[in-house]
Amino acid sequence: MADNGDEDSEYRIKVGDCVVLKRGDIFKAMQIQLGKKVIFEKQWIFLDKTVGQLYSTTFDIVSGGNLLPQKPKNADDASDAKEAGTDNRNIVDDGKSQKLTRDDIETLKEQGLKGQEIIQQLIDNSSTFRDKTEYAQDKYIKKKKKKYENTVTILKPSCRILAMMYHGREPGKICHLRYDTLAQMLTLGNVHAGSKVLVFETCAGLVLGSVMERMGGKFVLLTLQSLAVAHCIIKQPLFPLHSGHGSVVQMYPGGGPVRAGMESFGFPAHFHDTLHEFPICHVNALLAGTLDTTGKHSSAVEKQSDKDKEKEQNQPEAEQAGEQQDGPEDPNMETVTAEEARVEKEKKEKEKRKEAKAQEKRMKLAAAVAQLEGRNADGLIIASRFHPSSVVMGLLKFLAPSRPFVIYSQYKEALIECFTKLKEHGGTVNVRLTDTWLRHYQVLPNRTHPLLLMSGGGGYLLSGTTVATDTAKPSGSQRVEEPAAKRQKLTDTEG
Amino acid sequence: MSFVEYSDVIQDGDVAIVYLGIDSTMPIKVQKGAQTQTRYGVIRHSTDLIGQRYGSKVTCSKGGWVHVLHPTPELWTVSLPHRTQILYTTDIATITMMLELKPGSVVCESGTGSGSLSHAILRTIAPTGHLHTVEFHQQRAEKVAEEFKEHRVDHLVTVRNQDVCKDGFGVTGVADAVFLDIPSPWEAVRHAKTALKRQGGRVCSFSPCIEQVQKTCQALMDQGFEELSSVEVLLRVHDVRVVSMPLPDFGPDPSAPPGPDSRGEAPNHASIALKTTTPPREIPGHTGYLTFATKPRT
């Protein structure tokens, strides 16, 4: 262990890490905290014993909810020629072939028998097991394993794992975005390190996190001279970048950006340095050039977002605050007691903190504005419950020409409308409305076939590329994107 | 310009993509004094391209126009000269996510073929990752290495002209992910295992035939890979159309009151315009099966 210590440290589970618990096809994102009981698949467990273990380790859940790393697996139980039948013509499913009762099995569980051992007991006590075909026996064992094996695997989060998790557990939270659709979005959007990507999503932050994973965090601008020095420190091949930027601007509706899904990725701190946020209620002002981020008119800016925040959270608190302000105005107070002086001091400190917060907010807003006002973003990703036409028409202006945009919607009709609006408006090419169809296969000798087909519930994508906008009206263009019945005649549009 | 980093202005020596229309793109090597023929006329590089912004409209000699776009791996995939059957964006996107590729990833790939997937991988792993790609056909290996150079991504990739089934990828214990698109991937599985990091990694094999998939899955299991998963991804394109559907003429309706709001002078001229989508006549129904697996720590 000593020699591997340093090399493997990034592969070891630490307190505070964001991880994903897995059993079979069930995933759940969680944070490692000591002494905290967490629930996974109807069981309460403690994650304490995982600290210091390697990621992707599978643990047995033992009594008390503690986790014990599994011993390395031996060759699967007696895969030698087991007794088996040839077909099921004589097997009668009367529900009586298993001699163990539910109580018997409970007793075995209480005795602390491992999943593997319980399954062996079930096999031994089944009158029909040896008549089943080899394949049926296999299937039986797999089914029992799923039911009785009490294990959990701790995984490092990734886009792939979190996208599958959200789609399986809480599809409503991510507008029913299926993971293969998300994969298409990231590629069609050409999301890559060093680019400036705008994200508008109401998918719990999953899309935001996925974009950030593909951006890779902060990259330092290096020259050839500093390469040699940097290489010694970082021990990784480094290459000079020509542009220093690489940022994600999250455009958000309402009072604040939702980031739970993004947090589950467990990004290191420098990733957050590249993340900005911008409330869409200021988009029009920004585009018109009337948005002020300095202190002077900040009350208007703050009031708007404060209003939204209060609407969403603090209604009872706001009432209390109102009451407190009336107190000290009482004209009958003549002497200032120690108690009141303390209250005054607290109030002043609260004001200071409030002002500091407001200042921080203004600075963040100014930073986001600095990213946006150049209207030179490299990509636009939209995935929300909001009507996509309106969203894209509002945000497309921030993109530079010759850059991709991808819009996800659960509903095709919404994107049909979007398509039409984009065509009317002009400034885009290669606009396509697509969806993907994903099919899983079971691949086993003599038992290969597709699995249960996934429904077409993966959502739809509208993708395209911006072009330079100019005076020529697109409807007067020489060719239409929708193929006409006859051959197009070339018209002389510009000299 | 590079395939892993955007720039704004077209320069001499760039590779640009000319967009002529839906499903019609053409790569261009920008060169001072050169000309390119298109069906809308001639594009003169020095006047029409160099110094112009990417995304600009370019009017060609016959009076028609095109747009010039910054290259991306996706545009390259639909415009590159095929030397072999290539992978398209739908499969590429799935592979990228399922192999967990990101900046800094080290990837091994074989066969390189026409470089469609290679460019997409390079875009995703830049600027700190590396691609080791193996192609057993000498001319294809040379051609793709040339393209990597022209596309300013050669610092991120090593092309090896060898047989991956016999000689492996040329590296050991460094890869986060391995991709196989060869006729007999089961013969390369052990080399994939060697190339992957000791701490673990992801592997993907692409095969058009189910028999290949079966053999590959068996080899993966034999070599101790876990979490095997075979899928196929298909793309459906929806062409947005306005269609006109005529209304049936059931004859004058005696029960209806003759009101002032008679719709249409003669009912048999009436029709309803519907905005909908139609599928293309033929869609690609199968490209190949993608098999993914995880190498555990060894």
Low-confidence spans of chain A: pLDDT under 50, at least 5 residues?
223-228, 234-243, 314-329, 471-495
Mean pLDDT of chain B comes to 94
Structural shape of chain B: flat
Instruction: Please bin the fraction of helical residues of chain B.
Output: 10-25%
Strand order of the largest sheet of chain A: 10-9-8-11-12-15-13-14
- Beta-strand residue percentage of chain B: 25-35%
Largest sheet of chain B: 8 strands, mixed
Give the terminus-to-terminus CA distance of chain B. Answer: 41 Å
Largest interface: A-B, 79 and 75 residues
Summarize model confidence as the mean pLDDT of chain A.
83
| Spatial sequence of strands, sheet with the most strands of chain B | 9-8-7-10-11-14-12-13
Q: Give a short account of the largest sheet of chain A.
A: 8 strands, mixed
Can you tell me the overall shape of chain A?
Answer: globular
Please bin the fraction of helical residues of chain A.
25-40%
Structure annotation, total helices of chain A: 16
List unreliable stretches of 5+ residues of chain B.
none
Find the count of extended strands of chain A (DSSP E, 2+ residues): 15
Structural class of chain A: alpha/beta
User: What string, H for helix and E for strand, traces the elements of chain B in order?
Assistant: EEEEHEEHHEHEHEHEHEHEEE
- Class from helix and strand fractions of chain B: alpha/beta
Can I get a quick summary?
Chain A is of the alpha/beta class. In chain A, 36% of the residues lie in helices and 17% in strands. Residues 223-228, 234-243, 314-329 and 471-495 of chain A have low confidence and may be disordered.
